[in-house]
Each structure stands twice: as C-alpha cells, then as structure tokens.
Amino acid sequence: MAVMRVPRLVVAGTESGAGKTTVALGLMRALRRRGLRVQSFKVGPDYIDPAYHTTAAGRPSRNLDGWMCGEDLVRALFARAAGAADVAVIGWVMGLFDSAGPATDSGSTAEVARWLDAPVILVVDASGMARIAAAMVRGYATFDPRVRIAGVVFNRVGRWPTRWRRRSTSAGCWPSPGTRPSTSTTKTGLAALGVEWAPFSLLAGESIPAGSDALYLGGGFPEVYRAEHAAHDRLRADVEAAHRSGMPIYAECGGLM
C-alpha cells in the first residue's frame, strides 16, 4: 500500500495524564504552520480529542480503534485518511503498553504503532524525577523490540530543561526533542503576561464574571450534576453570547461536554 509510506509518528505517554495530548496538539499546529498538510488520528471512540486535533491540524481528525477494527481495517482507514497528507500524527489513549490484559498488547498504543510501522515519541511526566527518568525511558524502549521509540519529550520538568535533554542523551537514552514546563510554571508565565483568574461556580448558579476576556472550562464529571446544569439557563445563554462575540473559549474533557 503506497500511502503507508506517508511520514507518520505516534505521540504516546508513559501513563494517562503524562501530557501526550498537549504535545500532540502542539506538534500538529507546528507542522501545519510550516505549510505541511497534517492528518491527525485518535485511537479509540473518543470524540473530544479529535475535535482539538481538527482545529490544530486544519483537517478532520479520524479515529483508529484496534480493539474493534483489527489490523487490516486500521491500516485501510489510515491509508484512506492520510492519502492526501504530507505527514500523519497519531494521538493515543492511556499509556504506551496499556492493553486489554497483562499478557497481551491487544488494544494498546504499541499494537497499532506496530501495525502502522510508526515510530513513537514518548511523553514522560518528569515531575519529581531525576535520573530515574532515564531508567524509565530505557525500560519502555526495551520492553517490546517491535516498537520503535524515536524520541522522548520530558513534561513538567520545572527548571533546567537543557540539563534534562543532556541527561537523557548521556544516559544512553533516545534523543529528546524538547521539554515542557510544569503547570505552575505555565501559570506563572501567564500571570507575567497580565492574566488574572476570575473563578466562578456553575453549581452556585454563577455565570461568566463581568469584564472577562476569555473563558476556561476545566474537566470534571458534569453528568453527576446534570440536573443542576440543565437548570442553569443563564450560563448557557452567556456562553453562547460569548462565543458569538468572538471571546476565546477553551474547554477540556467534562468542560467540553
């Protein structure tokens, strides 16, 4: 299948919450800004991440589900969607080797990476780590020789990101394309740019604070409070009005629901 020669890579994490979605979105947008046609994919039936992928890549994201589809159909779906693209970026769920059971890689990131012969960029949540991060990366890289770890991104590293990259290389690990600061560092940077946070409570019947320039809706479990949210007519109207006025709105997970 000629289209399987389309350059592609998988962005996978050591575990859920490592930061792989953030890294994948940044990579998609960076490649798009270089003039490349980027085709994004998301493993599983998830509908939230593909919406983000579509915005970042500028093309509709497609789902790949090894558990439901099997190898032949996954390869065919990839080939059809990536046919007109210059590069494909595949975002994943959970950790690289998380699967349907302890003795199989069925349903895992690693399985589909093998099927597509795609190299893996491993995202590591390095908060609270030092040299142990190198041991972790080496373990992931040697766990299954059929899976190719092409590089590592250390996330939430705090200070001295250059030192992290140097440590990775000197320890015999794979190249580190970069690092990402911790959330607290990001908040500090936003504060330095003049961002002021104005929290409000949906459960208390509150709405968007007056004078807000942007809206952030965090994750959670809104279905637990569906009755309360359904009765919050004012907030729904205010969010719709904010959207129509062009206010930047960022929502994640439950907040997007």
From TrEMBL:
The lineage of its organism: Bacteria, Bacillati, Bacillota, Clostridia, Eubacteriales. Keywords: ATP-binding, Glutamine amidotransferase, Ligase, Magnesium, Nucleotide-binding. Residues 9-160 form the CobQ/CobB/MinD/ParA nucleotide binding domain. It comes from the Bacteria. Residues 200-257 form the CobB/CobQ-like glutamine amidotransferase domain. One of its GO terms (molecular function) is ATP binding. Its cofactor is Mg(2+). Signal peptide: none annotated. This is Cobyrinic acid a,c-diamide synthase.
